[in-house]
Amino acid sequence: MQVIRCFAVILLISYCTAVHAWSFEDHDEIAYIKNEHLLLGFNSKDGTLRRFDDIAGNLPLLAETNTKNSLWQIHLQSSSGMIPLDIFSAFLFRIEKVNSGYMKMTWSDFREIDHPDFEVVVSVWLDKNESVAKWKIYLKGVRGKEIEKVIFPKISGLKDLQQENLAVADWMGSLLEEPREYMRTNNRDYLNWAYPGHLSMQLLALYNPGKTGLYLSCNDSLAYRKNFGIGLDSRGYLSCQIDNFPEYNISSDTYSPNYEAITGILKGDWITAAEHYREWAIQQKWARESRLKNGLVPSWVEETALWVWNRGKVQGVLPPAEELKKRLGLPVNILWHWWHGCPYDEGFPEYFPPRDGETFFKNQITKAEEQGIKTLVYMNQIQWGNATESWEKENASQHAVKGIDGKTITHVYNIFSGKALTTMCMGSSFWRDKYASLAGKVINDYHVGGIYMDQACLGYLCYDPSHSHPLGGGNYWVEGSGELTRQIRSSSRSTDKIALSGEGVGECWLPYLDLFLTLQVSKERYAGVKGWQTIPLFQAVYHPYAVSYGSYSSLLSPPYDDLWPKEFTPSDTLQLLNESFNKQFLMEQARSFVWGIQPMIANYKDFLATDRKEEIDYLMKLARIRSQGLKYLLHGEFVRAPEIKASEQELKISRLSIYAGRDTERVTELQGKFPTVYAAAWKSDDHMLGIAISSILDHSFPVKLRFDTKNYGLQPAGEIFLIKENGKEKIGKYRNGKINVTIQLSPKDACILEFTSDNQI
């Protein structure tokens, strides 16, 4: 019997070797596939990725020493713990070059597990005219095994491209210069982002803008749970990977993700990556069913010129908004926190009754409506306070998210009370019904304009077998979110459309949410100035499909919840911040304006109109200009703006929010270098071009633009208009496909330059 088994193994090895011999040209034991843009090379003995070359630039992205890095890793769960498998766990390997652009590899005979039929098959292919490779992994013979995750593909051994940038679709978008140095300095050997969740799009790019780079994405149109990650090894090489999470189903004998991973050569920067991703993204169901694109967003949301984000009882919220609306002369609406009867970040979801009492609260909402002011009231979409009476009474823990260890996800956000919140499962019908009933009450009984559903654009893995969803991986979270929004809207008795808002942004939620709160515009107030920078990556892809609004931008110190412990009340709540932070406020508003985001002021009081007159006047100016350019700044498509050269400036930064700067460290003042002039370009549906420009300088600034019309799809001849606070005026013409225009911005000024083709006039 032993002789027969050995003979069979010899035959199998001979077969694999035979395939190796005829299926590709052998160059130092490397099997290649390539097109005009990209070359991939795999070790024919084990399948390690040895070459990832930018052919046009003659630049290899991988180090020559990249010999012991596995293309995939599988984490199996067993009674004795996790069993990791990779390409080196297989005793047999077979490689087949199907054609010059298609490679197929198979690993089998894994001695660490008692599954003789278990094998891993990887296919990778290149499209003829594109600089990308598509990857697919297939697992066979897995019945009886619980697969926690499949890491694939993992592109390891990435060389330092010098002057590297890492762009990640972390909600709005984040950019990190010199990621290797950042990871070394902060002792971080691995960073990852969950999709759907903080990763708003399936997109990551590592690049040198003047040379080349790596583009990583997926073409998953069904919102399956995954992570994108980047690692740093001891030799200083980076790796990029995707963690795929199968459904925890031991009865299934196979697993393959319902999508392909995509890697490619990136020539350019984060805008280039966004343009490439956009070609695929706007063809997907979530874009086709976008509420904004389909005219389903309440008209008052689109017409909002300015948001006021105030907290607490009626007197501190509605009168300031009413005063600001009169001053602005345009629609002003409210994002309202702390209206509820429970302490913030600990008492959810026991929102009722309102702090002002039901009758007074309802009457004041009605009064505000009569003055044209709408309210979005706060209701956290996924958290339940452990210390609440309802937590025990309603057996809430049964419907909470459970990790693979069976434990709930509990977190203390409130640094003053120390009381925790637990994450509820969006795949649980109990929780959806519970939240929908609460939302129905605030909509139907109090007649609010809508609900801000905090943490709505997040996603979790849940392993609770008592919930009616697949265990672990899957796409039930977004499906549950969609079902919840349908329940809320169907229960509304309002004759007006109800607005539902989420925190952050996410492509999966475009069909379900009307607007998205983009707090990263003022990231420095809670995360400081070092490391990651905010970029409008999501807006560069999806701006015409999603209403973005808001920021933490404030001229006052943050408030303190009256229902929190009295002994921790700061002495400086809602007091004027030092004048040295005024430029930070201007910078945040300037960003919002050019990035196509509805402006917001937090913690507004009417005395700011005099005590911080220049700053409030600037905010008003931006809101008035924006309201005349909605075809660009609400509905326009992001395009690369012509370069405007302006100096940077050291700004004092207030790192202070309701929690940040209130802890024991109390680091409240930072300093960083920021642009003084901001610009972004937008194409309208009728093919006009609008360039939004905002300056926070204390002196006038000449804006000089030189570019070819063909770069923006304009006709060779047309007219130029200037949109300012008091209206639009024609300032010139252009001819022969060349635009050459100079305007003078006054101190703390802004405008939209509009370019129309002759056949559009």
Task: Please characterize this protein's 3D structure.
The structure is a single chain. With 761 residues, this protein is of the alpha+beta class. It folds into three domains: 22-268, Beta-galactosidase, Chain A, domain 5, CATH 2.70.98.90; 286-381 and 426-646, TIM Barrel (Alpha-Beta Barrel); 677-760, Immunoglobulin-like (Sandwich). Strands 7, 8, 9, 10, 12, 13, 15, 16, 19, 20 and 30 form an eleven-stranded antiparallel sheet that branches. An eight-stranded parallel sheet has the order 31-29-28-27-23-22-21-32, covered by helices on one side. Strands 6-5-11-18-17-14 form a six-stranded antiparallel sheet. Helix 9 packs parallel to helix 10 (476-491). The radius of gyration is 28 Å and the shape is globular. The termini are far apart. Residues 1-27 have low confidence and may be disordered.
Q: What does the average pLDDT come to?
A: 94
Superfamily (CATH H level) name of the largest domain: Glycosidases
Poorly predicted segments: 1-27
What percentage of amino acids are in beta strands? Answer: 25-35%
Estimate the global geometry from the Cα principal axes: globular
Number of domains: 3
The helicity comes to: 10-25%
Rg, please?
28 Å
Query: What's the number of extended β-strand segments?
Result: 42
CATH topology of the largest domain: TIM Barrel
Largest sheet, described in full?
11 strands, antiparallel
Number of DSSP helices? 16
CATH architecture group name of the largest domain = Alpha-Beta Barrel
Terminal Cα span:
88 Å
Structural class: alpha+beta
